[in-house]
Amino acid sequence: MAEPRPRVWVSQPLYADLEARLDEWFEVARTPRVTDHAPGAIAAALADADGALVTLNDRIGETEVAGASRLRAVANVGVGYDNLDVAALAARGIVATNTPGVLTETTADFGFALMMAAARRITEAEHWLRDGRWQGWGFHELLGAEIHGSTLGILGMGRIGQGIARRARGFGMRVLYHNRHRLPEAVEEACAATWTTRAALLADSDHLVLVLPYTADNHHIIDAGALAAMKPTATLTNIARGGLVDEGALAEALQSGRLAAAGLDVFEGEPAVDPRLLACRNVVLTPHVASASLPTRRAMVALAVDNLVAAMGFGPDAGHPPSPVTRIP
Ligand code: DGY
């Protein structure tokens, strides 16, 4: 009798044609609609799974894998993987993977757009117009901050940070960055970016963009103290993870005029948004969409599928998933 095929769980509908590749190798348990899985539901889904294709909505840690004795691989559709407790997975020999690279340019485009929207008060201006407040060309109305010739600070200089730096060049910006590890000189030159300390980055940036991975160590890295160290004319843009910013302190800085403006695509309790931020007129708020273009979302799913197939020991890259975030046992 033929061996039963490994079983993989797909936590929400993605793209049927790309998911179909899984059917070549596995018995696939699909989730019929986009689902906010209740606590316990993920554990139940993983209990009889050998592999899983999941998204940022799915938090997988110790509790979720406790009963998943067959689970060998978890492929995350997303470059960030703070939804996975990597240590808990690694301890059980479960390979975790993510989707770097394929979303770099799309996400950098969006980060730049959000920074510009905050600086030039684009959504605020639109609300003002829609509210019927436009009485005639306003010489003194809605003055924003300059982009060209200003100093861009990038906190976290991985692929996406570098993409933003390359874009800044076209706008004649001076680019500073801070990263745990200084980049090789050739990369700094290609990005026309200069490494600086975190303190200098906060003090010197006209526009600060957060693009670093979220970890327990950098929780609220932008807190009241960091905001106080920034120029009052500066803007803050976050396209990384909400937990990097103390949202209460940010709302207070925006309301008091301690900081000129912010652009936020990510939130600590998303999809909930802190009401204090909703009350600020000088913040552009978007619902975690920096990578949201159809080609990019498809590329993310395609890479996650490749990762899962390979991590489970099938296909041309059997045993060598393209982007593991845990060591391959
Ligand atoms: C990611 O991939 O981590 C983004 O937040 C969503 O694309």
TrEMBL record:
Keywords: NAD, Oxidoreductase. InterPro entries: D-isomer_2-hydroxyacid_DH (IPR050223), D-isomer_2_OHA_DH_cat_dom (IPR006139), D-isomer_DH_CS1 (IPR029752), D-isomer_DH_NAD-bd (IPR006140), NAD(P)-bd_dom_sf (IPR036291). Residues 40-312 form the D-isomer specific 2-hydroxyacid dehydrogenase catalytic domain. It holds the Pfam family 2-Hacid_dh_C. PROSITE patterns: D_2_HYDROXYACID_DH_1. The keyword GTP-binding does not apply. GO terms for cellular component: cytosol. The keyword Membrane does not apply. CDD domains: GDH. One of its GO terms (molecular function) is NAD binding. Residues 112-290 form the D-isomer specific 2-hydroxyacid dehydrogenase NAD-binding domain. Coiled coil: none annotated. Belongs to the D-isomer specific 2-hydroxyacid dehydrogenase family. This is D-glycerate dehydrogenase.
